[in-house]
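Throughout this chapter, every protein is written as a compact record of paired, labelled lines. An example of such a record is reproduced below:
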Amino acid sequence: MAKTYIRVDDRLIHGQTIVAWCPTLGIQEIIAIDDESAKNPMLRSILTMGVPKQYITHIVTTEEAKEILQKDSDKNRLVIVKLPNRLMAIKDEIIGCEQIILGNMAKRADTTHQVTGATGIFFLSDEDIANIEELIGEGFKVSFQQLPNAAGTSWETFKKSI
């Protein structure tokens, strides 16, 4: 059976996705979920221009993602969202995923928490933390990790720093 991995990265699809994460995880299908990008042909083009043809690639709205994720697949999938709140809308469709890997999250107006270390710099809002706590409470495995060959930081370790 195929595996599904979740990545939270505000850049969605970029070089690290293609040259590091996809080969390491054995990804065959990329599903980037962002309503704004999905509705904008220019953004869709930019996000997919560096993706090799070997990957099935979707730039979709949340509703389109739900339809895709509800269908069984024999391909390893990488689902990418910009922020943890997007996961709340698809959490029923990602039950059983291997893990949620928190990646790059730039500073925003509502971010008050920061994780800095070997894994990068991540900024989180109170809403982000509440969403992640809810996902963990429902059994999802969550960690921070910038690159697959870098050490990750567990959610529990992060919580001790706030």
In short: The mean pLDDT is 93. The chain has one domain: 4-161. The longest strand covers residues 111-117. Helices lie at 15-25, 35-38, 41-48, 62-70, 84-90, 126-137, 155-161.
